[in-house]
Design goal:
Helix 1 packs antiparallel against helix 4 and helix 4 packs parallel to helix 7. The two termini are 23 Å apart. The protein is mostly helical. It is elongated. It contains seven helices and no strands. Helices cover 79% and strands 0% of the residues.
């Protein structure tokens, strides 16, 4: 694949990630979005449907992961990189999703520190942050 085609495909995949973010409110159920935008003075989480929220977080994580793996494939075209990245995404998902569930259910989620913990764990799950770490890491490894 020519480098021009790689760039175009990578930009299209990144564009999909941007579209997922741009239309997140229309695509996914997430009452925590508005809550975290207006957290001042609130002492408890808003009412939400737990199963619906969890399923939407999983769906969004899977969508972002598949597109991110596509970006990595287009850039590096190496099965070992995709396998390692998939494993990393899987392990981190299980870990962060368990913590996310605990923070949602926990009675200790009613103080500001735990709101911030919930915010950052949720952010990892719903945004393709790991991609921003993996691209330079694999590029550095490839050049070394």
């Amino acid at each position: 694949m020519s480098s021009i085609a790689k760039i175009i495909m990578a930009l299209c995949l990144v564009g999909i990630l941007v579209l997922v973010r741009a239309f997140e409110e229309a695509l996914f159920y997430d009452p925590l979005t508005f809550f975290f935008k207006s957290i001042q003075g609130q002492s408890s989480l808003p009412e939400f449907e737990m199963l619906k929220l969890l399923l939407n977080v999983v769906l969004r994580f899977l969508l972002n992961t598949l597109v991110s793996l596509g970006v990595l494939w287009v850039i590096f075209q190496n099965k070992d990189i995709i396998k390692l990245s998939g494993l990393m995404y899987g392990v981190l998902f299980v870990t962060f999703f368990a913590v996310f569930c605990y923070l949602l259910v926990s009675k200790s989620a009613s103080n500001i520190d735990n709101f911030l913990s919930l915010f950052y764990v949720r952010r990892f799950l719903i945004h393709p942050i790991l991609l921003l770490v993996l691209i330079p890491a694999f590029y550095f490894q490839k050049k070394k």
